[in-house]
Each structure stands twice: as C-alpha cells, then as structure tokens.
Design a protein that fits this description.
By secondary structure, the chain is mostly helical. It folds into 2 domains: about 55 residues, Orthogonal Bundle (Arc Repressor Mutant, subunit A), CATH 1.10.10; about 120 residues. The protein contains 9 helices and no strands. α4 crosses α5, α4 packs across α6 and α6 crosses α8. The longest helix has 27 residues.
Amino acid sequence: MENPYKRKKDPEASKQLILHIAAEIGATAGWHQVTFQAISDQTGLSKGGIIHHFRNKEELLEELVHQSLVELTEWTIEEKRASGNDIAPLAFLRFVIKKSSDLHYRRTMKVILQAALINEHYKKMWEEWFTNHIGGGSVADLDINSLIIILVADGLWYADNLGLYGINNEKKKQIVNKLLNLN
C-alpha cells in the first residue's frame, strides 16, 4: 500500500523553486549570500535535494543566467512586436523603461548584472546575448544614434538595478521622446 503521507515529487517544480529562491536571495542580499543552506531554509528542500538538481553553486548560477537570458529574449521580442519598431536599440530602451517597475524583471537583471561582474564567463554570455539581440553585430559599429540609445538604456538599466537616482517613468518617457528626435 502506498504511503499517503509521502510527498509527491515534482522535480521540475523543485528545480524552478530553487532557481526562484536563489535569484531572490541574490537580488536582495547579493550572490555571495546564495548558499544551499539558505535555499534549503527558504524552500524546505533538503540540501541533498538541491544538490540533486545542481551539483554546486556555479552550476546553479549558470542555469539562472541562462534562464534569465531566455526570459530577456522573450521580453525583448515582445517589446519589438508591441512597439512595431524593428530598431533593436530603441525597442531595448522602451523595454528597459517599461520593465523597470516589474520586480521579477529587476530581480532577473540583477542576477545577470552580478554574474557579469563576478565572472568573465557570464560577462561574455551577456555580451554575446546583447550583440545577437540588440547590437546586430558589433555594437561599436552601430550608427551614432543607435549607440547613444543603447548607452542611455544601459545607464537606466544600471541605475534601476543599483537603485540609483530614482528617475520616474514620466522622466524616462521624456528621455525616449528626446532620443526619437535625434538627427
């Protein structure tokens, strides 16, 4: 007879919970605070259960960055469609502004930012993603208007993720309008 008290296992749900909690801890306390014990404390999963999905913290971070870039790709494509604008830098800027108040987006971007700052491998993953989805080849080879738009988007992205300046969405919209008038 089957034990009615035995927990039903859902490996994919457990894996996603681990990733979600790791991202939450990383975004709020810093990646150095992400430990299997901290994840275990917040999920109720055993450390062994966590290790079953991720052999070490590096493997966990790799998957988290990978999933974050997949999400970012989906969000960017969605913004290009919504704005009807094929110009990737402008769609990226609008996307950064639109998503800046979305807590899930901010957590996702903090993970990517922290990973890129602590490890060259993740910096290269970010650069490759950016080049393929926004830069259309080498970012340095873009026309000056596209380059200005990307640098403004990056500045807003960094400011939002680091909690700097407190620029409200109205000011951000004014920035977009100003950039649309570049010659």
